[in-house]
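Suppose a classmate hands you a notebook page containing two proteins, each written out with its sequence and a corresponding row of C-alpha cells. How would you begin to make sense of it? This section walks through that situation. The first entry is reproduced here exactly as it would appear on such a page.
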Amino acid sequence: MDRRTFLKAASSFALLLPLTGKKAFAQSYEPYPGPFLLCIHAGGGWDTTMSFDPKPPYEDEKGEKIINNTYTTTETFGPFSYAPIQYHLTANNPATPWLHDPRTFLINNDRPSMLLINGVDTQTNAHPVGEQVVWSGHVGRDYPSLAALLAIKASRDFEKIPCAYFANNGGYVRTLGRVPLSQVNSAARIRELANQERLPAVNETLNLFSEQTSRRIQQANEKRIQQLSQELRLPESTAALGHYDKAMLTRHGLAPLIDPVAGGLPATAVTSVSRRSQLAGTTSATAIDTELQQVQMALHGFNTGTMASASITLGGFDSHSNNDNVQRPRMGYLLILLDYILEEARRLGLLDRLTLVVGSEFSRTPTYNNNNLGKDHWNTTSYLLFGPHIRGDRVLGATTRNQYPEYINPQNPSQLLPKDAGGIALRPSHVHHALRRALGLAEFNVPYEFLEGDIQLF
C-alpha cells in the first residue's frame, strides 16, 4: 500500500492511538457485539415546553401572559404529558405539510420503551458548557463524552474496531485522545475510504486492479506487517507500524458499510417514517437527509460490528427570535429522525443492544424576550432515553409552572420532595451515573468521578 493511501486513511480517521508495546499485527477484526450507544443532540437549546414538558400559559403578578403563546391546555398519553400542537413545515400555517407531533410519536414508538427525565438542571446557559455537561455529566474539560467512554472500553476489550466512535460536526465529542474519533459526514465518503482503488473520475465501478489482484496485494501487505512486527525492536518503530496497521484495518473494516450505506437513503425514507405522504416533492423531504444518512451509517456500523458508539447533532434550535416558529419545525424533524432510528434499529435487530439518548444543552426561558417573539437560554433541560437496561413508560423529574426544576426524593426518584425535606435537584451527572451503570462503564467512575452521587434512576 503506497504512502499516499496510508496518509489519506490515517488523516481521515484522526488516529490517536497511544504508544503500545511490541505485538503481533493483523488486518482483521472480531466484530464488536455491543452494547451500542447512539446520542442525538438537539443543538442550540430546545424549548421543552413545546414537546414533553408542556406549560400552559398563565398571567404573572403584572397580568402578563408567560410561558407560551401556542396552546392553553396540555394532553396526556399514559404517564406522559405533551403539548397538543402539530409540527408543520411552516409552524403557524397548518396548510403546509405536517412533519410530526408528540402524540403520534408516542403512539408509533412503543411507549413502554421510553423514559422521560424532565427538570434536569445544567447550571449554565452557555452553549459549550451546556453541551459538555449534558454529554459528559461534568463541566471539567478533562472529561470524555459518554459515547467516547463506551468506545474506549470497546476498543480495549475488542482490540480492533475499525471506527469505534463515530460523530458528525457539533455537540460535545471529546475523547482526550484515548480513542480515535471518526468524523465522516457524507455516505459517499464511506465508499471513497473503503475502496480507494476505484477511478471515480472515469467510472464509479472501475478499479485499478481486479478483485483477485487486490486480494493478493492485501495478503502480501498483511504478511509484510506480520514480518515487520517480529523484526522491529524500537518502541517508535512498533508504534508507527501499529498506526499503519490500524489505518489499513479502518479502511478494510468499512467495506461492510458500502452496500447498505453508500447507496444513499431510500427515496421514501422521510415520508415512510413520518407516516405521511405530504412531504413528497417538498423541500422538507430532504431537509434532514444529512442527519438521516449519519444515523444510517451509525446503525449499520453497529450492525456490522465496526462501530460501538455515535454522536449525531441536529442543530437549529437556538431561537432568540421567532421562537415558536423555529422550534416547532425543528422538533418535527427531530421526531422524524428518532422515528427512523427506532424503526431501523428494530429492522436490524439492534433494539436489545442499543441505548438511545436524546438531549440538548438547555431549554428556553419561560418568558418571551423584548420583541415578544423569541426565547433566550434557560438552565433546565430534559432527556429522552431508550434501551434494554432502561425501564421505560415513566417520567422522572419535573419543572414548576414557571419552569424551575422540582426537587426529587433521592431514595425514590419517581417522587417529588421539597428541598427542606431532603429533596435534591436532578443534574446531568445523575443521568450519567445511571447510563454508565446500564452500559457497563462504572469502571470510569474513579478517573472521571462526579460531585453528585448515584441515585439509581434506572
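The notebook's second entry, a different protein, reads as follows.
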Amino acid sequence: MKDKKTANGTGPGGSGKSDNVRRGGRSEKTVLILGANSDVAKEAMLLWVEKGYQVIAASRTLTGVDDFIVARGIPAGQVITRHFDATAFADHAAFYAALPAKPHIVLYAAGFQVTNEQALLDWAGTYRMVNTHYAGAVSILNLVAMDGGNPHLERIIGLSSLSGVRGRKSNFVYGSTKAAFTTYLAGLRQYLGSRKVVVNAVVAGYIRTKMTAHLDLPESLLLEPAFIARAIVGARNRFVLVPGIKWKLIYQVLRLIPESLVSRLP
C-alpha cells in the first residue's frame, strides 16, 4: 500500500518542514502514533493536535484515521498518515527511515484480540496477538530507541493492559502478550534513562473500543477511549500509569494477592 498524502496535499516525504516546525511563532513537537486506527490512539491524536503538535498517524488501515480527521475537523496538514503494519517486520526499517520528521514522542497502540478459547484452539489468532503486542513493538521501538540521528526523542509510551499483571484463566494468552510488552518497556526505560528519554507503560483496564466490542465485559468497569487518551497525553515521569480509580485499586490487588486467590478469579 502506498503512503497516503497529507491533508494539505503533500506526498511521501511530507511537507519538507524540519522536526521543529514553526507555526504561529512557537516551536512544535512531532508525535509518531503506531497503531493510529485504535480508538484510544485517535483520541490521543486529537489531544496532541490541540496542543499544536505535528502528528504522524501510522496504521495498517488508514480509512478509519482519515474519517476521524474529517469528522473532528482536524486542521489541514497537522496530521500526516502513513501505512504501518506491526506484523510486517521486514518493512519496519524502511518505514522508519522514510518518516518526514524524527519524533519527539512515540505512542505504540497497535492491538488485536481474540478470546482465550479462540486463542487456545486457533494458533493464527495467538500468533497475531504475539506479533502485534510484542514482536512488532520490539521491532519498531528498537529502531526508534537506537536512532542516534534523532536528538529530539524524549518519550516512548506503550499502551499495555492490566490483563498482563497476573495470569488468569479467562485471558492468559492475551495477557501474556501484554505482560511481555510491559516487561520490554520496563527494560527500555532503564536502557534509555541515561539519555533522559522517558518510557511509560499505560496499563489500562477494560476500554470501550471496537477491539473489545465482541467481549462480555462489566459495564461498570468500562472506560472511554478519550479518558485513556488524556492519561497518555498527560504522562509524566512515572513508569506505570493506570487510568481510573477503580482500576488503580484492582491493579494493586492483582499485584499483591497470592496465587491461590488469583486462581479463583474468572
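A careful reader of the second entry would note: The longest strand covers residues 155-161.
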